[in-house]
């Protein structure tokens, strides 16, 4: 009577479709919860517009039937294997959840009660208890199962053998629960329930999607998720993870789910807006998250639009998560799935177990006993009905039972085992291996499984939990099956390219893998050569970026008010480069390098100095030597004609000193050519300053001599006492010593030294002589300029003195040239860089020296060499008389 009362309480009120039961008795029982039905369907035929969805009957998702076959096939294999659970039969029950809370609760209660009866909180002595539950294809159904399983737990303390190391938790579930779909989303109010998840870790899936997006440089993407708790959790997670990796979102859309007929119109209107937003977006990549059946909902999108999309064949690259399977509702039999051709799917790693294809191939409604699902599946999948002997006539096509499963479209059924089915297959083997390990280590527990006391039975299940947490084995296909500390299977993810043909058949091409056991740099692998893209992309690799990539030589500048993936490309500033695409900032080249013209690479700078090997250097050297040779010739001419009046005039010794000094000036220019050395740097400016000061001092002495000589010729003049070598020598020596003192002080305080200038010239490293202190350098120039100005002034005043040998006017021209050269030297010196600075100084030395040589000595050489008749005393006296 007690049992009958409990049964009555468990029954659902009102008419409902009976639960499917696929039953096989055994020593150990495994329960299964599948989402085989629960969606609304219609009897209308789809033509050009999607049909209205009417609640005429519940419809199955045909593809889920393979999950049932995977469980049954695994149990069949185990029962036929002598190495696992010998002499023990593994049994199972499968119940349909109908994706309905009430019926899921009922199915779970029946699993925990007597076979095919709902007797909560009561276990008869002769009844077999449930060993494990495999189920929960989506997170919502898993949550319903979790709610019931969590209630039925027995708090007790059980000692663990010493080898296991400690005491287990007090709260232990009455059976083992393995989830092969989305894990249930728990909240703070939900008690903690231990379960084992057969799908890959979510973190691995997120990491794989990010790696895929970054590999193809898809930084501007859209996201679609189902409008439920699981979808909201996915969106919240990817928003943070993707943004940290430089990925932006063009849109985030939540696909509505309807529960009542009155919601369908609103759902279609909302879906039309979502479709138009997806298709009009610049983002060519859409990351889709959902549950097992979500793809069937996504198939509505091509038929929902607020605009005329007749000629629009645009598509996107769809990236689907592992929970999504290529499925269809039965009324979508003839719907075109071409929108998803070329999709890249992350799928649970799977293989095709040996013999599974033949096992599936021989499934037939006429020769399958105990399968409560196959007739409904057959009718829905093949769009036919089985004759009912109680009905007068049958509407629709008659099911013959000879239809071939391989002829069904890929969205209805696949002959190869899918990832979810492979997870179920692994889950059954995990249970079997755990039971085998328990039975071999504790033989006495076997007897307890057939009606022992409840306390001992709970000890049995505790042992099963303990073993399952640590189990590791190779399945029939050689894949390792084991769980981590969180109860998640240590499995990899396959990256699959969906190729959908016009007849809606599906071919899966494995193009990559996400392997958590591989080194970090090898965890993600992909072969882009075998990927088939949607025809809209013309087999070119799709691009998905808010802004075209900034090429090397440019950097990104984020647009104000836009996501960070939307930016402008600006040219790198001078001195900086970017050698990769989409760099946030340009980098500065080292001092030894300079940016290329395109500013994408750093080029080693060339070593630069004024050398004898280059045209400029050799030209200046030749000019200097040429003038030095001419000066030598002039000096020789004067020495040869030293007794002539024109040579004796204006202090012969000063003339010789000036010529020697000019010779040294020309040769001094050679110190500035060649690689700077310590000694040449010390001599350059000091020699230049002192030698030129001597030259200008000689010119000054000659000018003063001319003036004094003219004044001494006047009767009664006292200037005769000043005329002579003593005065001229004093002028030359005193003026030269002042410059020598300045140069000595310069060398003592901060002497010039060899230096490397890496900054003045962008493409050259300049080897130069650093002047040490610029102030002393300009002091030398200023003093030399002061002497030149004094000489010019005196010469200018004496230029009209009546003397045939008067040099004043020639000295005036020479000083004018000299001052002009050195006045133009200063701005030229400051405006040039590198070896050209040295060239400017050499040119100034040569030009000013040549000016002195030409203006002062060319007239005398003309008379000596070409007009010797004028070079005599009588001729000079007669000329003077004529002038007077």
Key traits:
14% strand, 8-stranded mixed beta sheet, disordered N terminus, alpha/beta, 27 strands, Rhopdopsin 7-helix transmembrane proteins, 6-stranded mixed beta sheet, 884 residues, Rossmann fold, disordered C terminus
What does this structure look like?
- This protein folds into three domains: 58-88 and 124-348 and 418-546, Response regulator (Rossmann fold); 554-604, no CATH class; 615-883, Rhodopsin 7-helix transmembrane proteins (Rhopdopsin 7-helix transmembrane proteins, Up-down Bundle), CATH 1.20.1070.10.
- α2 (65-79) packs parallel to α11, α14 runs parallel beside α21 (835-866) and α20 packs antiparallel against α21 (835-866).
- The protein contains 22 helices and 27 strands.
- β19 and β20 (567-571) form a beta hairpin.
- Strands 10-9-11-12-13-16-17-18 form an eight-stranded mixed β-sheet, sandwiched between helices. It has a six-stranded mixed β-sheet with strand order 1-5-2-6-7-8, with helices on both faces. Strands 25-27-26 form a three-stranded mixed β-sheet.
- By secondary structure, it is of the alpha/beta class.
């Amino acid at each position: 009577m007690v049992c009958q009362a409990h049964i009555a309480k468990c029954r659902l009120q009102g008419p409902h479709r009976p639960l499917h039961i696929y039953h096989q008795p055994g020593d150990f029982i495994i329960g299964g919860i599948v989402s085989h039905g629960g969606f609304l369907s219609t009897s209308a035929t789809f033509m050009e517009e999607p049909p209205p969805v009417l609640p005429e009957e519940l419809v199955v998702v045909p593809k889920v039937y393979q999950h049932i076959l995977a469980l049954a096939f695994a149990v069949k294999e185990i029962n036929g294997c002598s190495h696992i659970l010998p002499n023990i039969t593994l049994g199972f029950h499968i119940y349909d959840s109908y994706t309905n809370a009430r019926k899921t609760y009922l199915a779970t209660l029946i699993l925990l009660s007597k076979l095919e009866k709902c007797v909560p909180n009561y276990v008869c002595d002769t009844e077999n208890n449930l060993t494990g539950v495999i189920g929960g294809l989506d997170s919502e159904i898993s949550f319903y199962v979790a709610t019931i399983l969590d209630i039925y737990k027995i708090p007790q303390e059980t000692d663990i053998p010493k080898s296991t190391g400690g005491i287990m938790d007090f709260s232990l579930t009455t059976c083992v629960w393995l989830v092969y779909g989305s894990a249930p989303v728990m909240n703070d109010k939900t008690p903690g329930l231990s379960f084992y998840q057969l799908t890959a870790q979510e973190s691995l899936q997120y990491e794989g999607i990010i790696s895929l997006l970054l590999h193809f440089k898809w930084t501007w993407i859209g996201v679609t998720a189902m409008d439920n708790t699981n979808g909201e959790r996915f969106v919240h997670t990817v928003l943070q993870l993707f943004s940290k990796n430089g990925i932006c979102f063009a849109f985030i859309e939540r696909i509505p789910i309807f529960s009542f007929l009155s919601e369908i119109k609103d759902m279609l209107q909302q879906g039309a807006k979502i479709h138009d937003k997806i298709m009009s977006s610049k983002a060519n990549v859409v990351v889709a998250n959902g549950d097992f059946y979500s793809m069937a909902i996504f198939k509505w999108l091509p038929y929902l639009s607020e605009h005329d999309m007749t000629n629009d064949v645009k598509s996107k690259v769809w990236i689907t998560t592992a929970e999504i399977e290529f499925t269809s509702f039965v009324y979508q039999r003839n719907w075109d799935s071409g929108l998803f051709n070329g999709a890249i799917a992350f799928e649970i790693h799977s293989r095709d177990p040996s013999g599974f294809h033949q096992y599936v191939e021989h499934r037939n409604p006429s020769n399958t006993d105990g399968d409560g699902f196959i007739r409904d599946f057959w009718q829905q999948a093949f769009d036919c009905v089985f004759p009912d002997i109680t009905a007068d006539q049958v509407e629709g096509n008659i099911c013959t039972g000879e239809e071939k499963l391989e002829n069904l479209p890929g969205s209805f059924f696949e002959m190869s085992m899918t990832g979810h089915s492979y997870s179920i297959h692994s889950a059954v083997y995990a249970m079997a291996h755990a039971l085998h390990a328990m039975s071999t280590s504790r033989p006495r527990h076997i007897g307890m499984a057939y009606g022992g006391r409840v306390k001992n039975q709970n000890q049995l299940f505790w042992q099963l939990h303990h073993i399952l947490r640590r189990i590791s084995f190779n399945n029939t296909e050689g894949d390792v099956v084991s769980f981590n500390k969180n109860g998640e299977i240590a499995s990899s993810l396959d990256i699959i390219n969906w190729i959908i043909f016009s007849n809606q058949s599906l071919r899966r091409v494995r193009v990559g893998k996400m392997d958590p056991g591989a080194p970090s740099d090898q965890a993600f692998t992909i072969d882009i050569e075998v990927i088939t893209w949607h025809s809209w992309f013309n087999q070119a690799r799709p691009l998905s970026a808010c802004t075209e990539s900034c090429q090397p030589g440019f950097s990104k500048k984020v647009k104000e008010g836009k996501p960070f993936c939307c930016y402008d490309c600006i040219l790198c500033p001078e001195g900086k480069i970017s050698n990769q695409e989409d760099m946030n900032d340009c980098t500065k080249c080292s001092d030894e390098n300079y940016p290329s013209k395109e500013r994408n690479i750093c080029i080693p700078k060339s070593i630069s100095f004024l050398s004898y090997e280059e045209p400029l250097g050799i030209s200046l050297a030749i000019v200097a030597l040429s003038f030095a040779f001419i000066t030598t010739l002039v000096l020789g001419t004067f020495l040869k004609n030293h007794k002539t009046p024109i040579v004796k005039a204006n202090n012969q010794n000063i003339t010789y000193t000036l010529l020697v000094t000019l010779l040294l000036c020309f040769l001094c220019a050679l110190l500035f050519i060649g690689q700077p050395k310590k000694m040449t740097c010390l001599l350059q400016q000091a020699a230049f300053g002192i030698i030129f000061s001597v030259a200008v001092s000689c010119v000054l002495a000659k000018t003063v001599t001319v003036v004094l000589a003219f004044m001494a010729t006047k009767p009664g003049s006292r200037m005769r006492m000043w005329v002579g070598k003593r005065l001229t020598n004093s002028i030359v020596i005193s003026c030269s010593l002042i410059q020598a003192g300045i140069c000595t002080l310069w060398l003592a305080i901060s002497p010039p030294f060899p230096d490397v200038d890496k900054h003045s010239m962008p493409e050259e490293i300049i080897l130069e002589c650093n002047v040490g202190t610029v102030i002393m350098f300009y002091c030398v120039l200023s003093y030399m300029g002061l002497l030149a100005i004094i000489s010019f002034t005196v010469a200018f005043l004496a230029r009209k003195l009546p003397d045939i040998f008067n040099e004043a006017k020639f000295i005036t021209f020479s000083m004018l040239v000299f001052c002009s050269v050195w006045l133009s030297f200063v701005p030229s010196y400051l405006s040039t860089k590198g070896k050209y600075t040295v060239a400017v100084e050499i040119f100034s030395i040569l030009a000013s020296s040549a000016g002195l040589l030409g203006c002062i000595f060319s007239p005398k050489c003309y008379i000596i060499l070409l007009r010797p008749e004028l070079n005599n005393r009588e001729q000079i006296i007669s000329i003077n008389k004529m002038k007077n």
